[in-house]
Design a protein that fits this description.
This protein is an alpha/beta fold. Helices cover 40% and strands 11% of the residues.
């Protein structure tokens, strides 16, 4: 189990202080970092404890540079590199992966924090529904392209299980399983197979059965994908010294909701019983990335700095394997290097 003293109110600063030795000397890739975001708080916490290299990857260069300025205001000598990438474009992702390989041959920690939440139906460059194509498929492709760097780090590490891939998810994963027959959200509720339908009883504001697309349910599908991705990584890399954990940060009011209309923002606000600060919201990702007590754990889903149960549709290894195959199809490439 994770450190029992950590919980709902723990901050990333506190976690980083506790695991300073685990951060020191690590090469860390943080995907998703902008001002006043969860990513910024994760980056600041890591930067204080002498990582060998901290790479910040995000869509907008100016926003990454603002975060880097905040880091250097606190730790002027922290080695930070910036990288722009658009997770809704697979060509951008492939270009970014090559750029990362020029920065370092090994990655000890990958934290996949980037996500978007949009109110209207959009698609990626490849024609995939935007939430699924960015929040899951984009990170699936980037992480797999960088697996050689992660496996190299694991092979050189004296501590098995300390090389990790962290996937940020959400309690919103409970809103939707993977819609294998309709991941692009073209079908109405009644047209879906039973196993692909959202849970019964959702308010109409979240899901109108007469309308094919719901941004909340689409977001939920992508967050289910994040958890299932960690399930697959654990299985495929279990003999290679790499761990993967999925993380629900809790309720934090960040820029993720900036694109929602007033009704959407009201719905989001109503879901949180306890609202966390950014530093508190970043704590669980820091536990997942650096807590040595979980080196021997077989993966899992964390919330409030502890292991927690996720929905069954997000933890079934058979569903995870099916999603892996679909994801490979959607990126046009097979990734078998983790298999022995």
């Amino acid at each position: 189990m994770a450190c029992p003293e950590f919980g709902e109110a723990t901050t990333a600063t506190e976690v980083a202080n506790a695991f300073s030795e685990q951060i020191k000397g690590k090469n860390v890739l943080l995907v998703g970092a902008s001002p006043n975001s969860l990513g910024e708080h994760i980056a600041l916490a890591i930067s204080r404890h002498s990582p060998s290299l901290l790479i910040l990857a995000s869509r907008t260069a100016s926003k990454i540079n603002t975060v880097i300025s905040s880091i250097h205001a606190i730790t002027p000598n922290c080695p930070v590199k910036s990288l722009t990438l658009d997770l809704s474009s697979q060509s951008s992702i492939r270009k970014a992966a090559k750029e990362i390989e020029t920065l370092t041959s090994k990655l000890d920690i990958i934290i996949n924090n980037a996500a978007l939440n949009v109110p209207d139906y959009e698609t990626t460059t490849e024609g995939i529904e935007m939430h699924f194509g960015t929040n899951h498929i984009g990170l699936f492709l980037l992480t797999n392209l960088l697996l050689p760097n992660t496996l190299l780090a694991a092979s050189q590490s004296a501590i098995p299980g300390s090389t990790r891939i962290i996937n940020l998810t959400s309690a919103g994963h409970r809103l939707s399983p993977i819609r294998f027959s309709d991941f692009n959200f073209l079908k109405k509720y009644e047209e879906l197979p039973e196993e692909e339908k959202p849970p019964m009883g959702l308010p109409k504001a979240l899901m109108d059965p007469e309308v094919a697309y719901s941004p909340f349910v689409a977001y939920g599908q992508s967050k289910t994908g994040n958890i299932l991705f960690s399930v697959s990584l654990i299985e495929r890399l279990k003999d290679r010294g790499v761990k993967s954990f999925s993380v629900h940060p809790g309720s934090i009011w960040t820029g993720l909701a900036r694109n929602l209309d007033e009704q959407g923002q009201a719905l989001i606000k109503a879901t949180g019983k306890v609202w966390k600060s950014g530093d508190q919201g970043a704590a669980t990702a820091m536990v997942a990335a650096f807590d040595p007590k979980i080196n021997d754990m077989p993966g899992g889903y964390l919330a409030d700095c502890q292991f927690a149960p996720a929905a069954k549709h997000a933890t079934d290894p058979k569903i995870a394997d099916r999603l892996w195959s679909l994801s490979e199809e959607l990126v046009g490439e097979k990734f078998d290097m983790g298999r022995k």
